[in-house]
Design a protein that fits this description.
alpha+beta, 5-stranded antiparallel beta sheet, transmembrane helix, membrane, transmembrane, Type II secretion system protein
Length: 173
């Protein structure tokens, strides 16, 4: 009969090739999962940033146009019922024109050009339509301006692609 003693045990140090391959496979799988999570987070951040930028730009542009239309004393363009890509109003005796050049919405006040949108947002051709409603009982005409505009994020990457449209009607005072 053989007696087992720790002195007779052969010491093995290191690892076998099979164990090494198993560890490498497990670590590779973890790296794939972690890198996929980082890619998904990056894509989500890009879409959120593009959405935020476009929504902010369209909201600012519409509010600026609303302010000028409500304070306008006269409307030069567009003519009644004819859609136009530019808007011309007179605010406090000063001519104000809105148009698009190179994808940027411009506000031209008394010949001074100011860009209403930044470089990160492109404006598709806006549509300004003048509307009038005549009330025969009061013998009064209400004039409104319908504004339709589409903006998109200026990026070639599909991760950052986003566009939004807005249509609103503004009544003159």
């Amino acid at each position: 009969m053989k007696i087992f003693s720790p002195k007779n045990k052969v010491c093995q140090r290191g690892m076998s090739l099979l164990e090494l391959l198993l560890y490498i496979a497990i670590l590779s799988g973890l790296m794939v999962i972690i890198s996929d999570a980082f890619i998904s987070l990056s894509k989500g951040r890009g879409q959120a940033e593009a959405r935020s930028e476009v929504n902010s730009a369209i909201r600012f542009a519409i509010e600026r146009i609303k302010q000028d239309v409500k304070n306008a004393s006269a409307v030069s363009a567009p003519t009644l019922g004819t859609p136009s890509s530019s808007l011309s109003v007179t605010v406090s005796g000063v001519p104000v024109v809105y148009d698009v050049l190179g994808g940027a919405l411009r506000r031209i006040e008394n010949g001074v050009v100011a860009t209403t949108t930044g470089n990160s947002v492109l404006v598709e051709v806006p549509t300004f339509t003048r509307l009038e409603n005549y009330n025969s009982l009061l013998d009064a005409t209400t004039t409104s301006m319908q504004v339709a505009m589409t903006m998109r994020y200026n990026s070639l990457s599909t991760d950052w692609s986003y566009s939004d449209s807005l249509r609103t009607t503004i009544t003159f005072r």
